[in-house]
Amino acid sequence: MPITLTEIEAARRVLAGHVLRTPMLPAPRLSALTGANVFVKYENLQVTNSFKDRGALVKLSALTADERKRGVVAMSAGNHAQAVAYHAARLGIPATIVMPVTTPAVKVAATRSHGAQVVLEGESVADAQVACEKLMRERSLTLVHPYDDPLIIAGQGTIALEMLEDVPDLDILVIPIGGGGLISGNAIAARAVRPKIEIVGAEAALYPSMWNAVAGEHREIGGPTLAEGIAVKNVGKLTLPIIRELVSEIILVDEARLEQSVNAYLTLQKTMAEGAGAAGLAAMLTKPERFAGKRVG
Predict the structure, then answer these.
(1) In angstroms, what CA-CA distances link 113 with 105, 197, 216, 222, 271?
(2) What is the pLDDT of residue 105?
(3) CA distance 275 to 289
(4) Which of 1, 116, 190, 278 could form a disulfide with 160 if both were Cys (CB 3.0 to 4.6 A apart)?
């Protein structure tokens, strides 16, 4: 396995004092809704409002002086873009972010507000990736990949360490899947700390990229989704084997369940979750029998 618990613990030391240790709280009303004992990790409280702060800072902190001077490039539909832009500005690293033209305007504006140069290119993250790689070659920039990088994966894995410190006896972690960086890092960390814990992935039904790769299927990919943050057509070369080994199941969630879950966070928890962030709850609502009576993070 390319990433170990030791590397995730090292990533945690990099983050100390720079990235929030977000609260992990019981959610009795979501428990009543799902039939499980639910605990929620509030990564929406990070400076850029997502877990992406973690991996971005770990990657940027590892750059050489020459790489920092030349600058970095990233492709993202929004959250990774904002995290790279924010931490690059804080560290004095020039950043160029390639975003699909379909990216919500608020995320484009937020990325620019952190001082990054934003290039809008293509209809999807996959299209943006092509433009990103072109810029990387032309300007000798360092790529900060949103998910397929050991340092990014290690940074995201710090979440599970915190979750299991706060609630050591969790039975299952339910984690959204886009390219697989978040679930890979957390699967490695969680299974190292608590070997019997189950890791379940939640993937948008319109973008079953990881499902196809793991199951050997060819479900159609594409279409407008509320979960644009995990609407990924290309899975990671690093993340795929980790998911095959450590993830028990991937649950595909449709748009109705995503909408129901966003609404549940708003009305029951009085907190805002975007579609991608609500995918874990959507998975629980899709297969409630899978989680009934379990302690779920």
Answers:
(1) 12, 40, 42, 30, 24
(2) 87
(3) 22
(4) 190
